Amino acid sequence: MATEEKQEEGTTETEGAPKKDKKKIMLFAVLGIVGLVGGAGVPMMLMSGAPVEEHAEDTAHEELAHEEVPRIEIAEIGLFTVNLSDAHSFVKTRILIEFDANLLDKQTMLVEGVDGGEAHGGGASGGSAEAEAGGGLHPHIAKNMNKFRDVIISILTSKKDTELLTSEGKLRLKDEIVDGLNEALALEQPAVVGVLFAEFIIQ
């Protein structure tokens, strides 16, 4: 009897072994499928996101391409000889301005050309041949030449010689002239960006 019971137990253990193996196989199969799906999903997500990133980069490049690059040009306003406010000295200076022609074109809707009818100096002795003839000047600069000269003369005559003898004083004078010319232009964005002194004498 004991022998028969042992045989039956051995048979039961032998029959249970294949069941455990099948469960392990099914478990591995499920894990393998999940791994394949997950592994395939990552590249698909990356691939689906690539066109969006590329489109964003293309849009950024297009926006940069459409941005107007400043086109800085120089115009001579003329020679100025005026008395200073202390009445004991005078200044003689030749002034040129730097301006953004693209910005000026955009805001005035003008093409480059010559508007010689209003491009002449006044209000001070001397003057620029270019300013008088309007040759090569941006049309909106030429159109406002008289305003520019009036602004500059007003600023110069308000100064004392001691204010203009130092480098700091000349820099402040340049800033005042830039601000004054932009106010004269009365544009939404300031087009005049700098002032140059080609000659500067105080006596």
Descriptive notes:
The protein has 203 residues and is an alpha+beta fold. It is 59% helix and 17% strand. The protein is built from seven helices and three strands, in the order αββααααααβ. Helix 5 (145-157) packs antiparallel against helix 7 (167-185). The longest helix is centred in the first third of the chain and has 65 residues, at 2-66. The radius of gyration is 41 Å and the shape is elongated. It starts with a helix and ends with a strand.
Task: Please tag this protein with its features.
disordered N terminus, 59% helix, 203 residues
Give a topology summary.
Layout: H1 2-66, E1 72-83, E2 90-100, H2 101-108, H3 129-133, H4 139-143, H5 145-157, H6 161-164, H7 167-185, E3 192-202
Antiparallel strand pairs: 1-2, 2-3
In a few lines, what is going on in this structure?
This protein is an alpha+beta fold and 203 residues long.
* Mean pLDDT rating: 74
The oligomeric status of these chains comes to single chain
Secondary-structure element order, as H and E? HEEHHHHHHE
The residue fraction in helices comes out at 55-70%
Poorly predicted parts: 2-6, 110-134
Global shape: elongated
Beta-strand content: 15-25%
Largest sheet properties = 3 strands, antiparallel
